[in-house]
Amino acid sequence: MRRWRLFASLVLTAASSSTVQLIHAGEPPPTACGYLARTMQMQRSGAVLLASYPGVHSGPLSDAAFLYDNSVAAIALVACGQLPQARRIGDALVLALDHDRYWHDGRLRNAYRAGAVSTGALELAGWWDSKAQRWLEDRYQAGSDSGNVAWAMLALLTLYANTGDERYRDGALRLARWVESRVDTRGAGGFTGGDFGHEPTPQHLTWKSTEHNTDLAAAFIWLERATADAHWQDRARVAQRFVAAMWQAGGGYFAVGVAEDGVKVNPLLALDAQIWPLMALPGAVRQYGAALATSERRLQFDTGYTYSEAGGGLWSEGTAQVAVLLELLHREDAASALRASLLTQRAADGGYFASDVAATPTGFMLTTDPTQPRVYFHLEHLGAAAWAALSEQRYNPFTGRSELPR
């Protein structure tokens, strides 16, 4: 129940031509920060959104700039000391709030077309279907996941904290007002998944995600600090209570969330649902530290980590997430080993592959096609590079500091 950016129908033409970058003896390994900075420098001046899968040139992922990936990239650029470049992504998010082709209620979509952003209506990515002889847009990309909106809030609040520019704070506030409309009273409460599909009548997602509610709790906590409005602390508590209710004490892990009825727990063990609460929620490491031990016991894969108990491949983004947490816990040797593992997933241009195998399963099915599994492909991925940069800088994106929440 996290954001889904990969499609089983994608033709993996990019994977066959990908090669791991060779590092010559005596040379320092290239940095993920350097890769992000170079990528930004290659863009046209002004506000911009980056392609999430730069090596893909056809199908649903072609030219798609996913909100989550760009939000994490903006935070990573701040961590890397590239504040002017980070602001270019933040400016694009602010523009997107005011220049949607239909919505004017404070939401952002899951993805847009990559490239320069101006004051015209933002385009969505799409592709030409030769069989149907028409232009198509992906229904997931057109929708708005609560977790993705939360990450946009975190990115804007990070920029506000580092610049004092009130446009970023006000943008985060608008996002918060939209996403709080997804508050739910069923079961353990919390916030539902968001909206799926195109305007004017997208499907309201009634499931609830541990990961989404973790993101929202962190964003609301930060927003309360930025606005001095205690209302957002209350919203944070709603999200935190849901996350706490997902704790499976007998197994020492967090379930991924609940089904559409808002009550039935999905007990799948997924990595981000374990790692992110420890990084994002005050006191979580003390109370739920077993989640890391369970991940180390059940989700390690080769020299890194896989996405979930479905197994099947190394997940670069998640491996970097564990590395960040280990650094914050002062387990430097273990974190260093994971960063070394990440270097094996570098592409020829310095980016990072999402997975080390053709397709790493997640344990979920696609929302766009429930007959197909959701997987991470062996493709260069902006989100993986951004998290690799955060691990280099030992930077917690949930707090904006190199430390756990207080």
Describe this structure in words.
With 406 residues, the chain is of the alpha+beta class. It has one domain (30-393): Glycosyltransferase. Helix content is 42%, strand content 13%. The strands form seven sheets. A five-stranded antiparallel β-sheet has the order 7-8-9-12-13. Strands 1-4 form a two-stranded antiparallel sheet. Strands 2-3 form a two-stranded antiparallel ribbon. α2 crosses α15. The model is unreliable at 1-26 (pLDDT under 50).
Give the helix/strand layout.
Blueprint: H1 13-16, H2 32-41, E1 48-49, E2 64-66, H3 67-79, H4 83-98, E3 111-113, E4 115-116, E5 127-129, E6 134-136, H5 139-142, E7 144-145, H6 146-163, H7 166-179, E8 192-196, E9 203-209, H8 210-227, H9 231-245, E10 247-248, E11 253-254, E12 257-258, E13 265-266, H10 272-280, H11 284-288, H12 290-298, E14 300-301, E15 304-305, H13 316-328, H14 332-343, E16 359-365, E17 373-377, H15 382-393
Antiparallel strand pairs: 1-4, 2-3, 5-6, 7-8, 8-9, 9-12, 10-11, 12-13, 14-15, 16-17
Would you tell me the overall average pLDDT? 91
- Architecture, CATH level 2? Alpha/alpha barrel
The count of helical stretches stands at: 15
**Pairing-aware structural class of the strands and helices?**
alpha+beta
Task: Bin the helical content.
Answer: 40-55%
Provide the β-strand percentage band. Answer: 5-15%
How many domains comprise the coordinates?
Answer: 1
For the secondary structure, the number of strands is 17
Over all CA atoms, what is the radius of gyration? 19 Å
CATH class: Mainly Alpha
Write down the oligomeric state: single chain
Largest sheet: 5 strands, antiparallel
Uncertain runs are 1-26
CATH topology: Glycosyltransferase
Strand order, largest beta sheet: 7-8-9-12-13
In angstroms, what separates the terminal alpha carbons?
27 Å
Query: What form results from the Cα inertia axes?
Result: globular
